[in-house]
Design a protein that fits this description.
Length: about 130
Amino acid sequence: QVQLVESGGGLVQAGDSLRLSCAASGRTFGGYVVAWFRQAPGKEREILAAIHWRDNNRYYIDSVKGRFTISRDNAKNTVYLQMDSLQPEDTAVYYCATPARTYSRIYSASSDYTSWGQGTQVTVSS
């Protein structure tokens, strides 16, 4: 069973940047999809970005395209989410997740992911 630990959240002002990290232990990311989700108070959890370890294919939802970048470090078994031009509406708890089995493509539903980190809070003030 893989364990995921997110870090890098915090309180920033609108327009600032943050880089979140998702480190895995117990299993490598090799061959798997890793995704970043977020959940704001009173809202459903939504996928932001995902990366397929096997072919480096990436997925972004429209609202973060051009602002957020997902990347990976094979040696550190870590996935990053670079977030630029943050806005108050980006305030949420951010989670990384990975499925229990390998997929041939990236799926966007939270139900497709079985291992989750504890989350890291991102708060953007105006």
